[in-house]
Amino acid sequence: MPSPKHAADVERVLSRAAQECESRRGVWFGEGLPQGVRTAIEELGRSPSEAPAQIAFVEVTAVSPEGRASSDAELPELTCPIVGLSSSTLDDLGSLLGPPCDKGLQLTRLICPVAVFDFTSDGLRVREVRHGLTAADLQQQLSTTLWSGPDLKELGTH
To answer: What is the CATH number of domain 4-113?
Structure first.
């Protein structure tokens, strides 16, 4: 049975990912955490269709600063943004966001319990950070440069 802290981390990821679907009808869900997102959306009384997909969710185990992700997901031919989901904690952030890589799925966004990251042409950008943490706290865990701006928000308030 997962610890209460782990359960809260997973719930934080699922509820934040469900927010990504608010204005989108077509959603593709991979295995693992993305299936929890599907359930969360259905519990809100919405039933997203899979085609044509306007956004896709995959569970990831490692992501490069450029947004290339390791995942077991077998995606169909998609042209929509792909969002990676991870239950990695602050202590695991350095191993989740690892060295540069040119293989793997190209993500546009990563949602984990401590932050929401975007992968841009300028590099890795933190968009939201969990209450009680700062972008500097995240940067201490990473070997790559992290960008943030005046639009940085508390996680879940997008």
So the answer is: 3.40.1080.10
Q: Is 109 strand, coil or helix?
A: strand
Higher per-residue confidence, 83 vs 76: 83
Residue ranges per structural domain of the chain? 4-113
Rounded CA gap, 89 and 6, in Å?
9
For the stretch 90-130, pLDDT in tens is: 999 999 998 877 788 899 999 999 999 999 988 899 999 99
* For residue 52, cis peptide bond before it (omega within 30 degrees of 0): yes
Sheet of 62-63, strand order: 62-63, 68-70, 105-106
What is the signed CA dihedral for 5, 137, 125, 106, rounded to 10 degrees? -50
Instruction: Report the pLDDT averaged over residues 26-37.
Output: 92
d(CA 46, CA 77): 25
Here the tokens at position 108 are 């546009």
* Beta-bridge mates of residue 141: none
- Contact (CB, 8 A) for 94 and 139: no
- pLDDT at position 1 is 56
Neighbours of 33 (CB within 10 A): 21
Phi first, then psi, for residue 151 (nearest 5°) are -90, 10
